[in-house]
């Protein structure tokens, strides 16, 4: 599955900051752009696993929206 990401160079601390705008709070970073991209993949996987855990524990509900 593909997720949109935004990657920006961190002018103050150095390295790169990357986040997935469709997954609230899913942010990572890396010293290089390649490292940041690998780290956001791990962050997205962890985010999705936490969503599945909430579903299993019946703490998360979903709704269907027609566009």
UniProtKB/TrEMBL annotation:
PANTHER family with a match to the protein in the record: ANTITOXIN HICB, UPF0150 PROTEIN SSL0259
Domain annotation HicB-like antitoxin of toxin-antitoxin system: ranges: 3-61
Domain of life assignment: Bacteria
Name by which UniProt lists this protein: HicB-like domain-containing protein
Pfam families: HicB_lk_antitox
